[in-house]
Specification:
The chain is an alpha+beta fold. The protein contains 8 helices and 21 strands. A 6-stranded antiparallel beta sheet has the order 11-12-13-20-15-18, with no helix packed on it. The chain has a 5-stranded parallel beta sheet with strand order 2-1-3-4-5, sandwiched between helices. Helix 2 (50-59) packs across helix 3 (80-94) and helix 3 packs parallel to helix 4 (119-138). The longest helix is centred in the first third of the chain and has 20 residues, at 119-138. The termini are far apart.
């Protein structure tokens, strides 16, 4: 498969070309993508020559036309949205190449509502008509995508994406202003678009009438976006993990936000609670999935010696050697205490031991020289007002 991508260094082009390169180089090994191999990629952008365009149009099997003008100094420059496509179609026609052509159009081409009179929309509509005429005249498959606002990694801030601008500002402490928080945007995540474009390359594009569609999209206000971004920033202090459920807007926006962090802003300190027995630090918390912590026990130290009504935990020793003791709190049928059960665990042999409700438990570092490091997960976040932790000898 030989693929030509125009506008290869733009936001969509860079993400698409990177995905195609991963397929080409065997880094993306999903089985359904093997139909594209061997894959050759032609990247056309401002630095490319007309001769290269003509050569690539003569041999390509598919064209993604992503190049366009969207923020010109003078609106007359929007004519480039038509002329750029004309150049591509002229080269295809000269080479008698009837390969499929995809056009990145815009919802502004509807010229409806707030897009009424849009010079950009008019230029995109003209490009759509030009491509459809080419398809009819030459029998080529045409794919027109009217794209909404896009967001994701590598989108240029302070240019034509409010999401990119806000992500960059919030992530790095730069000033920003929201002029109308109630303004609603329809947003499409770049990875979802790229997945759709790869489906199109496989001949499996989604269509609705005369247009191809990519999705899912989200409808969110500017105020809602900024509120979520500020929440992401605050999560370093609260340790709360935002909603990262599959396909959620929150998950996609969080990935976008993180991609804008400056390289020197990727680390942050945690609150370490320490005493003679060692240290304890909370790492992550969630509203409905509990919390993750790291517990360090000094040589020979024993921790725990308590039980919980409802809380339960998972212990995983990652370094060192430990003896975990558990005992059911209530008496057995004869009135006698339940026996203590012991688990001997080591970091070299990863083993999870569960601390369940109603069981007294402790963890002892068996080494007199080496610290014991244990990864702990609890099903609920620690609440100092209701700790559900009660001392008991085991």
């Amino acid at each position: 498969m030989r693929v030509l991508v125009t506008g290869a260094n733009g936001f969509v082009g860079k993400n698409l070309c990177t995905a195609l390169e991963c397929i080409r180089d065997g880094k993306d090994r999903r089985s359904h993508l093997q139909a594209l191999l061997p894959l050759e990629l032609y990247r056309y952008d401002r630095d490319s020559s007309p001769d290269e365009l003509a050569q690539w149009c003569g041999s390509c099997d598919f064209v993604f036309h992503l190049a366009g003008v969207n923020r010109p100094k003078d609106q007359v420059e929007f004519v480039g949205n038509v002329r750029g496509l004309e150049d591509v179609l002229r080269c295809l026609e000269a080479a008698e190449n009837r390969c499929p052509v995809m056009l990145a159009s815009s919802v502004q081409a509807t010229l409806a509502g707030r897009f009424s009179g849009s010079a950009y929309g008019k230029s995109k509509l003209a490009a759509e008509r030009l491509l459809r005429a080419h398809g009819l005249a030459y029998g080529s498959r045409v794919l027109v995508y009217r794209l909404p606002n896009l967001y994701g990694k590598w989108c240029r801030p302070n240019y034509n994406s409010a999401v990119a601008t806000f992500c960059d500002a919030v992530a790095n402490g730069r000033p920003y202003a929201v002029h109308d928080p109630s303004t609603e945007l329809e947003l499409l995540y770049i990875d979802d678009l790229v997945e759709e474009l790869i489906r199109a390359l496989l001949g499996q594009e989604h269509r609705e009438g005369e247009f191809c569609v990519a999705g899912p999209t989200a409808h969110v206000t500017l105020g809602g976006i900024v509120e979520m971004l500020e929440g992401f920033k605050a999560s370093r202090a609260s340790l709360l993990v935002p909603d990262v459920s599959p396909s959620s807007f929150s998950k996609k926006l969080l990935s976008t936000y993180q991609s804008y962090l400056d390289p020197d802003r990727l680390s942050y300190a945690l609150d370490v609670k320490a005493d003679a027995r060692g240290s304890f630090v909370e790492v992550l918390k969630s509203v409905d999935r509990g919390q993750v912590s790291v517990n360090v026990s000094a040589p020979g130290a024993t921790k725990g010696r308590h039980w919980h009504h409802s809380k339960w935990e998972k212990f995983l020793v990652v370094s060192g050697e430990a003896l975990i003791r558990v005992r059911k709190l209530d008496a057995d049928a004869t009135g006698e205490p339940h026996p203590v059960v012991e688990y001997h665990v080591r970091g070299e042999e990863p083993t999870v031991v569960e601390m369940v409700p109603g069981y007294v438990h402790s963890i002892e570092n068996l080494s007199d020289e080496r610290e014991l490091v244990t990864l702990m997960w609890a099903n609920e976040c620690f609440d100092p007002e209701r700790p559900d932790t009660f001392y008991e000898v085991i």
